[in-house]
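Exam revision sheet. Question 4 asks you to relate a sequence to its structure. Input first:
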Amino acid sequence: MNEKEFFRLVGNEIRRDILRSVAREPKYLFQLAKELTGSQQSIQKHLQCLLEKGWLSQELVEGPHGPARKLYQIAKNLSVRITLSQHSFDIDVFDIQIGKISDPLDDFQTHLDEIGKDLSLTLSQGIQKDHQSYAIQIRTLNTILDKLGSIENFILSKKLTVTGQLNETISMKLEGDDHRKDRELAYTIFSSSAPIKIDVIQKEIKTKRTELLASLKRLNEKNLLPKRGVDLMEKLEVTLSSQTE
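Answer key, structure tokens:
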């Protein structure tokens, strides 16, 4: 995928919101329209664009009391690397390959050993002020970056595999549309690498603080809250109690 196509897709705020929502859990059109406070016709146009580019896929799901509906889900695993400096502006968009490494630990260690040797050799040469030396060092460093990219792909692949297993566990314990916000809250808490803040979670899940606390308590009862989630629940309890006093 080229950078022009990538930024055309993610440059639209509604499409970003759709991707963010569907990444947490597959959604129907009516769910997205309700969550994003837009018309179904408007959301459908953006969905069609994402479908045509292969970022989303759709599945026809039979309804228990009505006609079949299209369920939208993420179809691509992508990573983006942007390098901006005084002398360069590079954008790399690449697919994350899952399950493509036959012996991941050996492959991982081999890459590390090769990178260590190449980097040590490059640094030991020092910087010689001639064009040929510059060209050789730049090529070597680009090769090292390519190998680091392979390691990054392995780590991202492993993360997506573990995340998928976690999401399956959460879905099994919290089935049905009544628990949709509980599931999304659990996904968000487990997957977020940044410190969790009440206001950020509220904006992400689009819920009131009282409803957020109720969801946290339900997750805790089912042993689906990590330590950071328990801390958030206790902090929110204190906050709401002080407001009612």
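Marking note for examiners. The mean pLDDT is 82.
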